[in-house]
């Protein structure tokens, strides 16, 4: 080790790899991963969230899973919960939609209204 | 770089390893592969989480769910339920959080056991992979070293440690900064930095856990100490009975060398430092500083008189700084967070936190780190979960063979160096053995004395002969052959040995006897005068009897008796032949009608 910059670079890289263990989170992305969710394609959606967050260097948002929410016809379902506990439920998610949710909702704080459960129900 | 959505941390400390955590890791790897999750979930072996009684422990992130008493058979369920479907396996959670409503986060901090703790020395234990230097660096590892080498003068470093109020965590509690200053002021071209990892107290495993869980914190602190006092070589004296600690230290030293954190020209500052391991063969006296250094020199580990102190003439007659593992583990944090922060924790004369290995008659056996000044009651009831089977708390033994017992009447005493000494005990390295009403205090004193008699190096007569004589008297008392005057003889011997022994081992060896005499003299007297052991422990003074009215003459006791000393027949109560009985207690345990009693 010849410099502090070198140490700092190692620290940043290692921290990124360990970010999943960080308990100080700003937001949580909860992906429905029951059989219905998995069958509808929840796994690529979850991976898309992970990759998008990583690409943008966002370490204070945690991606977790949950079981069946009950609305299997709307799977894959993803809930984004902010630090106040406010919850937004996105339905019929895809990897592309996930990238937009990260960009608009998580980074800029604008809820993607057209993907929400309310919008879906109205369209019916 | 591979991204994992989940990390599974499996405890790899000595406690959990011995209850099969290695098998659990293997099983996770198999099950993850079966479910095609091996690229999504990473399994990491960590150091001790502290809750050894509930081991093996598995923590799954990002949820932070803490699973306890995990068996290899449970792994399939954790993988299929939690990792595949996101459903927390509630039955494996600690019982005090099983009923909680919120299922999304079950973080460690929520558990009663951790709530009242403050982890400074144990900050990374159970959090990082001790065999990966990158994980230590991620949590600010070697940052304190970088700061010290590039921004601070050696005097500033020593000043920081002095201001923090840190006292040695190995026993006596000598101010650490002052020790560093003495070593720095000694003029010599060669100096050494030593780490005492020869933890030998019965019931103590703090240092082992730190070495197993976070070896780099000790290495980093030793390099800082080397810079502060002007040394370029360090030695870690670790007992060979700690194979996991030895292995992880070995790995850590190699990794630090690869990264150039040990060796020549660290951080391009021109400062060089390296560390070697020395394995101790497990002699208790080698934890005493002068004996430890004699042992490192390759000689028989016997103590020598002080002064000269090691800071003046230590290893190979050169000035040497010797601190214990836990003391070192505090150093990097003090440098990074500042001495004022550290001094704000604890009490006026005891700053910071202390790690205790809590064992004995307590529900949550394990490793706890508490701010100084926490009361014994908080440790035993709030963190330790109280005494099992509804028994009463009788005393806590601290400081191992050098310490003494704190009786229940002093349970609200804040734990710090000076209060413990006032009570006739000491902080010691931090073993804390909890005893309930079924413990005989004379027997406990005998146990510790047996230990010191075994471990005495034999160099000085007070320790070699004196402790042996004390033990003989104690054996007589517990054997039901105590005589009037024995207690007084014990006291005289104890005081003389304390005053005349050569090193800490002998000077403190009578402490368990003196402190039990101070608080439980009546028990000694009952043994000597009435030939009775009030706690019902000393075998020679008690016997098992069958209550004829309660006995249903089922014969279970007779069938289970290993020496066949119980006789009887259908319809007639059974009787125990007291001459043949070996007092093993099997009959009492097996009797379905609770008709057998221990008569004291």
Describe the structure.
The complex is a heterodimer of chains A (124) and B (600). Chain A is an alpha+beta fold and 124 residues long. Helices cover 44% and strands 16% of the residues of chain A. With 600 residues, chain B is of the alpha/beta class. Chain B is built from 24 helices and 17 strands. Chain B has a five-stranded mixed beta sheet. A four-stranded mixed beta sheet of chain B has the order 2-1-3-4, covered by helices on one side. In chain B, strands 7-6-5-8 form a four-stranded parallel beta sheet, sandwiched between helices. In chain B, helix 18 packs antiparallel against helix 19. The chains are: A alpha+beta (124), B alpha/beta (600). Chain A binds chain B through residues 1-4, 7, 10-11, 13-18, 20-21, 23, 28, 30-35, 38, 46-47, 50-51, 54, 62-67, and chain B through 1, 3-7, 9, 40, 61-64, 84-87, 104-105, 107, 109, 127-128, 134-135, 137-138, 140-143, 146, 150, 259-261, 265-268.
């Amino acid at each position: 080790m010849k410099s502090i910059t070198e140490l700092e670079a190692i620290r940043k890289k290692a921290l990124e790899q360990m970010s999943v263990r960080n308990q100080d989170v700003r937001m949580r992305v909860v992906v429905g991963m029951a059989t219905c969710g998995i069958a509808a394609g929840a796994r690529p959606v979850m991976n898309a969230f992970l990759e998008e967050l990583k690409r943008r260097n966002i370490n204070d948002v945690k991606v977790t899973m949950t079981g069946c929410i009950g609305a299997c016809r709307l799977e894959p379902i993803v809930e984004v919960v902010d630090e106040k506990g406010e919850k937004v439920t996105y339905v019929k998610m895809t990897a592309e939609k996930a990238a937009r949710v990260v960009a608009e909702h998580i980074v800029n704080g604008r809820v993607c209204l057209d993907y929400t459960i309310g919008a879906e129900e109205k369209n019916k | 770089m591979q991204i994992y959505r989940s990390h599974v941390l499996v405890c790899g400390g000595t406690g959990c390893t011995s209850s099969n955590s290695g098998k659990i890791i293997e099983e996770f790897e198999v099950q993850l592969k079966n479910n095609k999750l091996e690229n999504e979930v990473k399994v990491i072996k960590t150091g001790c989480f502290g809750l050894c009684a509930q081991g093996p422990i598995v923590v799954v992130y990002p949820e932070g769910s803490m699973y306890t008493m995990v068996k290899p058979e449970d792994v399939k369920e954790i993988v299929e339920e939690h990792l595949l479907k996101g459903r927390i396996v509630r039955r494996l959670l600690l019982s005090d959080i099983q009923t909680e409503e919120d299922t999304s986060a079950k973080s460690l901090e929520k558990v009663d056991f951790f709530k009242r703790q403050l982890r400074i020395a144990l900050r990374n234990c159970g959090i990082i992979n001790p065999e990966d230097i990158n994980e230590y660096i991620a949590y600010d590892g070697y940052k304190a070293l970088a700061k010290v080498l590039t921004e601070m003068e050696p005097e500033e470093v020593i000043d920081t440690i002095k201001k923090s109020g840190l006292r040695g965590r190995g026993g006596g509690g000598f101010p650490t900064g002052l020790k560093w200053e003495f070593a720095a002021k000694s003029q010599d071209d060669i100096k050494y930095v030593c780490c005492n990892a020869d933890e030998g107290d019965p019931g103590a495993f703090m240092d082992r856990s730190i070495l197993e869980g976070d070896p780099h914190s000790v290495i980093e602190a030793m390099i800082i100490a080397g810079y502060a006092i002007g040394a370029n070589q360090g030695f870690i004296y670790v007992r060979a009975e700690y194979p996991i600690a030895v292995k992880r230290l070995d790995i850590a030293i190699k990794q630090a060398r690869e990264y150039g954190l040990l060796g020549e020209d660290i951080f391009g500052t021109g400062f060089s430092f390296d560390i070697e391991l020395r394995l101790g063969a497990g002699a208790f006296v080698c934890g005493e500083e002068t004996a430890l250094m004699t042992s490192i020199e390759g000689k028989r580990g016997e103590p020598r008189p002080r002064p000269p102190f090691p800071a003046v003439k230590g290893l190979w007659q050169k000035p040497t700084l010797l601190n214990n593992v836990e003391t070192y583990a505090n150093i990097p944090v003090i440098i990074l967070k500042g001495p004022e922060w550290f001094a704000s924790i604890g009490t006026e004369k005891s700053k910071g936190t202390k790690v205790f290995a809590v064992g004995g008659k307590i529900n949550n056996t394990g490793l706890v780190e508490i701010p100084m000044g926490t009361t014994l009651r908080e440790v035993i009831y709030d963190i330790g979960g109280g005494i099992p089977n509804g028994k009463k708390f009788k005393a806590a033994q601290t400081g191992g063979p050098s310490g003494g017992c704190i009786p229940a009447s002093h349970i609200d005493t804040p734990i710090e160096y000076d209060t413990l000494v006032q009570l006739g005990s000491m902080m010691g390295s931090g073993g804390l053995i909890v005893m309930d009403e079924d413990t005989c205090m004379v027997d406990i004193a005998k146990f510790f004395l047996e230990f010191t008699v075994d471990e005495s190096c034999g160099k000085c007569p007070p320790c070699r002969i004196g402790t042996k004589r004390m033990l003989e008297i104690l054996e007589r008392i517990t054997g039901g052959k105590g005589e009037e005057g024995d207690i007084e003889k014990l006291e005289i011997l104890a005081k003389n040995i304390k005053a005349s022994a050569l090193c800490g081992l002998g000077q403190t060896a009578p402490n368990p006897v003196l402190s039990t005499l101070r608080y439980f003299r009546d028990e000694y007297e009952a043994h000597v005068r009435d030939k009775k052991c009030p706690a019902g422990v000393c075998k020679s003074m008690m016997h098992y009897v069958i209550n004829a009215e309660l006995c249903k003459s089922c014969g279970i006791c007779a069938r289970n008796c290993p020496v066949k000393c119980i006789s009887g027949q259908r319809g007639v109560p059974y009787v125990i032949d007291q001459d043949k009985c070996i007092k093993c207690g099997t009959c009492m345990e097996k009797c379905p009608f609770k008709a057998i009693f221990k008569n004291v």
